[in-house]
Amino acid sequence: MNKKIIDHHMHTNYSPDADPKATMELYIQSAKEKGIEGVMFTDHIDFDFPSDLFDEMTDYNKYLEEIKRVSKKENFKVFMGVEIGYQPHLNQRMTDFLSSHPFDFVICSIHVGDGLDFYNGDFFKGKTQKEAYLRYYEIVLDAVKSYDDYDVFGHIDYIIRYGGYEDRSYQFNDFKDIIDQILKAIIKKGKGIEINTSGIRYGLGVLHPGIDLLKRYKELGGKIITFGSDTHKIRDYYTGFEEAKKMLIEAGFEYITVFKGRKPEFVKI
Ligand SMILES: [Zn+2]
Ligand SMILES: [Zn+2]
User: Fold this and answer.
1) Cys staple from 236: which of 125, 185, 231, 241, with CB 3.0 to 4.6 Å?
2) CA of residue 108 to ligand 1 center, whole Å
3) CA of 85 to the centre of ligand 1 (A)
């Protein structure tokens, strides 16, 4: 893998759902062993989450100091990203937060729909599988139309990860119209998507997004794509990247995107 292809989705022990042992230093050591030229930490910010999981907010002034300290100590490129959870009423609060810190990269993700948690299953109660997936995409569409302060949209089809259905896969064609609208809005606003490799680890055997969505993104003129493992522990860092690269090439892409100071740079894959 090209050493410039940096993992753009990583959770350290600053994320409350990550392994307490997943320190910045250990990720850097792993990156050095793999011959990657930098790390991009994207810890969680989820304002107004339905449970108290994300109540304790990281002090990003201290976080930035920590990034500078480990970067100097390890003599390594360390970028400060963030994965921010979108909900419609948080639009202004998210923008205010992001403008107060010098982030290199912002992932916008939907972790909560209509005030309900996906992870604990609340969102799925009283909905058929198709209704739940469709409602999720409606929420994504609303987000990409009304919110602009991000660089890539996170794990765009990850709704299949939750819900406890026996068959968690979905037919792309069932949702093609709304996915088209989502992708068009993302592309028009100069934003991108990520290939999130965590689906392989969650036993789904697929990447987020799958090949059909990725091909459609290409057809519609999409260019900006980052790779992210969505790791929450050292062991999962940079996993699934060979599969992601294979899929990217299959979909007709020749470049992958890396970010610094919120600016995209294109790297040949
Ligand atoms: Zn996420
Ligand atoms: Zn994540």
Assistant:
1) 231
2) 8
3) 8
What pLDDT band is residue 168 in, cutting at 50, 70 and 90? Answer: low
What is the value of pTM for the model shown? 0.96
Instruction: Enter the tokens of residue 214.
Output: 């990725």
Give domain limits for the chain: 24-268
Could you tell me the two tokens for 95? 């923008």
DSSP class of residue 115? Answer: T
Distance from Cα 248 to the centre of ligand 2, integer Å: 20
Residue 190 phi, psi dihedral angles, 5° rounding: 75, 20
Could you tell me the pLDDT band of residue 248, with boundaries at 50, 70 and 90? very high
Residues 6 or more apart in contact with residue 268 via CB below 8 angstroms: 2, 254, 255
pLDDT single digits (tens) 175-187: 999 999 999 999 9
Out of 15-29, 171-185, 194-208, pick the least confident: 194-208
Gap between the Cα atoms of 199 and 15, Å rounded? 19
Q: Rounded to whole angstroms, what are the CA distances from 120 to 10, 162, 164, 189, 196?
A: 22, 8, 10, 32, 21
Count of other CB atoms within 10 angstroms of residue 253:
20
**Ligand in closest contact with the CA of 155:** 1
Residues in the chain: 269
Q: How far is the CA of 263 from the centre of ligand 2 (A)?
A: 20
Tokens of 136: 């999720």
Q: Which ligand is nearest to the CA of 109?
A: 1
Please answer whether residues 7 and 244 qualify as being in contact, where contact means their C-beta atoms are separated by less than 8 angstroms: no
238 with 5: CB under 8 angstroms?
no
**The domain at 24-268 falls in which architecture?**
Alpha-Beta Barrel (3.20)
Which ligand neighbours the alpha carbon of 86 most closely?
A: 1
Residue 112 corresponds to which tokens in the numbers above?
């909560």
